[in-house]
Design brief:
Elements lengths: L4 E3 L15 E3 L14 H14 L10 H11 L2 H10 L3 H16 L5 H9 L3
Antiparallel strand pairs: 1-2
Amino acid sequence: MENIIKEESKKRGRKTKNQSKEVVINKEQTKFFVDLSNEKKILDLIFSFLVKCNQKSYGRIITFKDLCLYSLSRLTEKDISKVQEMSLTQMEKVQRALDDFNKKTDQKLELGEFLVKKLGIN
């Protein structure tokens, strides 16, 4: 994954609060490896799909690559949104809620003030 996506940094040191990351994709990469050694449930799901797909009388053996290529062609904008949501940490979700609240109410609350208000702590 390190070869695919690199965050390009122009300055060293601490970044400003609202600075977004610039992502550069290496489009010359042609090989992708997926390490699922610690993902037992996902491995079981993949193997069950492969067994089902290969229960046939004709044609070549269906591989994981075939499943991936077919699945990628079926992804919608809604699926992309779900994947993006899965990538967020808990604190990023809280920060997003704070930013949305500040934008909606035209306020500039800090994180602590926002949490006190949302949790109803006096």
